């Protein structure tokens, strides 16, 4: 296992796209410490910010310390695991293809932005645009799983194409906006304009029901099979909120009718 301990007190963001198991495997400790990261407008060796120990040969990376100013950790990674004992900065796991990232603290904006595979689990809170697309892109998250035990910000799953996002706490506004496909599960209180412009896909709500846009219509009340399967798997992954909702019926709303209108908002009604 490779052990990185953050030792800097800088308030200037550090962009560390090099921190992926795929990139570090086969490199010695001095080689890893010499890798370039962006610090403001300067290119600086990784060793200026992290104490580096261990071996990356097993594709396992342990990062300790407050990395809330460190951006792009795990971006584009394909295999291996990254465990962060502390907070993580923006763009965590962006465009990720595989592997697993565990964050024991909070994470910044753009967690898993445009990711295509793998799993990210944030034990604390996350910022805005979890699993969303970058400005100017047509499609956001295209596969993989993002779990956030705490709260998250605005535009969760915006233009999401495939995959699963589960938020244990409250979310900001526009959750599931322009959703193309995939599933967003919210266990807290969502903000306004839920599912605005969604085409397909599902948004499952297990907390309070917000006021939906008038372009959604009540369809029926039923017990979907896929929600039970997802909730069981979430429980197996240690997502503690899921186990309380394994049984029960959902009220189904279809929309957004100003778009394609084949999406659904499901609200848990109890067992």
How many beta strands in the DSSP annotation? 17
CATH topology heading = Pectate Lyase C-like
In order across it, which strands form the biggest sheet? 5-1-6-8-9-10-11-12-13-14-17-16-15
Text of the CATH class: Mainly Beta
Give the C-alpha Rg: 19 Å
Shape: elongated
- Mean of residue pLDDT? 96
**Order of helical and strand elements:** EEHHEEEEEEEEEEEEEHEE
Task: List the keywords.
single chain, 271 residues, mainly beta, Pectate Lyase C-like, 13-stranded mixed beta sheet, four-stranded mixed beta sheet
Set out the fold topology:
Elements: E1 2-6, E2 14-15, H1 21-24, H2 29-33, E3 36-39, E4 42-45, E5 50-54, E6 60-64, E7 70-71, E8 81-85, E9 100-103, E10 119-122, E11 142-148, E12 162-167, E13 183-186, E14 202-205, E15 217-222, H3 225-236, E16 250-255, E17 263-268
Parallel strand pairs: 1-6, 2-7, 6-8, 8-9, 9-10, 10-11, 11-12, 12-13, 13-14, 14-17
Antiparallel strand pairs: 1-5, 2-3, 3-4, 15-16, 16-17
Describe the 3D structure.
The protein is mainly beta. The protein has one domain: Pectate Lyase C-like, CATH 2.160.20. The protein has helices at about 20-25, 30-35, 225-235, and strands at about 1-5, 15, 35-40, 40-45, 50-55, 60-65, 70, 80-85, 100-105, 120, 140-150, 160-165, 185, 200-205, 215-220, 250-255, 265-270. Strands 5-1-6-8-9-10-11-12-13-14-17-16-15 form a 13-stranded mixed beta sheet. It has a 4-stranded mixed beta sheet with strand order 4-3-2-7, with no helix packed on it. The chain is elongated. The relative contact order is 0.09.
